[in-house]
Amino acid sequence: MATTVGVTDEKKLKRFLHYASIGGTYLPGARLHAIHYKEDNIDLLVAILKNMQKEKIFEVIKKVYKENTSPHQEMIPFVLAECARIDSLKIEALKTAEILCDNTKLFLLFFKFGFERVPKIGCGPACKRLIGAYYLKKDVTKLAGEVAQFPKYRGWRHQDLFRLAHLKAKPDDIARQALFAYISRGAETMNKHFNEPEPKPEAKEIVDYLNKVDSFRKERDPARAAETIETYMLTVDHLNFIHLKNRQVWCALLRQIPLRTLLDHFSLIARNKLFRSGRGWDADFKSCVRDSLQNNQAITDSGLHPSRVFIENIAYQFEAKFKLENAVKKNLRVAQKAPAVSSEIVSALNQLMNATFKLFKPTNLRYIIAVDPFDMTTRKVGHIPFMLPSQGAAITVQSYLKIEPNVTVVAPTWDGPISPIEVAKTSTAKELEEILSSVRSKTTVAPKTMPKRDPTVSMVDVFEWAQKQKKKFDVFILVATAINATQYVAKFAQYQRTMKLPRSKLVLLSLCCAKNTVDTKDIFVVSGFDDKVLPLIVNFVKESI
């Protein structure tokens, strides 16, 4: 049940654009799954869109896109598709989609969302103009690269849009005609009209490229595949899945793919045992991966949050082991043992994580982080079952210590009192885990008479402690396995009034599950953990959501 205090429609729209909900609670997980698009959730969004001024709606959407604050970029075409279903917003929504959905993924997603839900947005003149603008105005070489890289996305093909709009290239634009033939009918038809009996000079470059990519996807020889990758600067998206099990192909890819893409496929690399060679390690491949992880320019370009690297490191070390143990518990047939873990790769990931701290500018606000260390090692994190809550708490504390200059860390003892914790800014996540776990022993109560604890409200006294210490904090971040959010609203409001800090913020980070939710402009609730949690907290503090 949610406690609701007035939140503006603009703020609710910002929330939806960031994490697919107008409420003040973030649930980790992929937003393309149907669970996040329940009818009641969408009905609330539509009500907001109908209530807001048209100019303000598109101003907010454009701002979120321009500032790149949403970790779920697919929400931008989703909201635009919902706008296109409303008669008074449709024309402006299609114009905005032409500007913002400027890459294949977002463009195809816009039509997926627009046509897979009822009522469909329809394909009138304005919609056909949008499709035409994308395929007819874009540079043909760039367009061919996008079509070859993503012939389809989430079930929608370029061919589907051609059937809606019936596009034709200008008579003198031979290269685009060849590309359109490839999209509509495939490589065979394109070659029949533009490559046989002799290739047409105006289309030769485009035709050769599309033929090379088309044959590349069917290529079985790893050496030829690696050569083609290097010649044409191909990416993971161009590959036949079988190539992703080959070291030679990966070494060719690693020279050019972004770090984010490497991390997206890191579990796959480990699962296929590419770091191993027989009973030992493949030194050349490990060196190739380490070089990619430690490339300074790639790190700067990546924009990776440290928590993203940390979670991947945890997954590399523990995910396979967790799945194996789980299978044994369920008496399932186990096909193989968990792959061995390389200390060198773990070290390289740790170095990458430390480097990414430098990518973020501090907000220079005053933070207090309260961590309840109880039950942190006996439960699993919501959404990441192979990760311990203590690890989630550690990376949260470490991120703020490394990035922000003014951070206070406290924790409750068994018998209740809030105690400050001495931590160094140089502390590693592992050291922070150990420091936080030792807080449990700091109690004045004899072990045999320890009172029963309620972990959901274990840190409610942190506001009173801050008041007594006469400390002003701009942001409270409370971290525990489970938090009853409704129990913190009144105490936090009292702190805001007493300390005259009406714009201070409260983040309730419930690593396993949130007991209740609240909906106020100054409180943000998280139920679970993933790599998007800490960036979303930053956006909340900056009032981007």
Overall geometry comes to globular
Please tally the helical runs, counting DSSP H or I stretches of 4 or more residues.
25
Structural class: alpha/beta
Please tally the β strands and state the result: 12
Give start-end ranges of low-pLDDT stretches. Answer: 446-450
Helical percentage: 40-55%
Number of domains as seen in the coordinates? 3
Mean pLDDT comes to: 90
Largest β sheet strand count, sense and barrel closure? 8 strands, mixed
User: How far apart, in Å, are the first and last alpha carbons?
Assistant: 22 Å
User: Whole-number radius of gyration?
Assistant: 26 Å
What fraction of residues sit in β-strands? 5-15%
Domain TROVE: 1-365
Family: Belongs to the Ro 60 kDa family.
GO molecular function: metal ion binding; RNA binding
InterPro entries: TROVE2, TROVE_dom, TROVE_dom_sf, vWA_Ro60, vWFA_dom_sf
Short description:
With 545 residues, this protein is of the alpha/beta class.
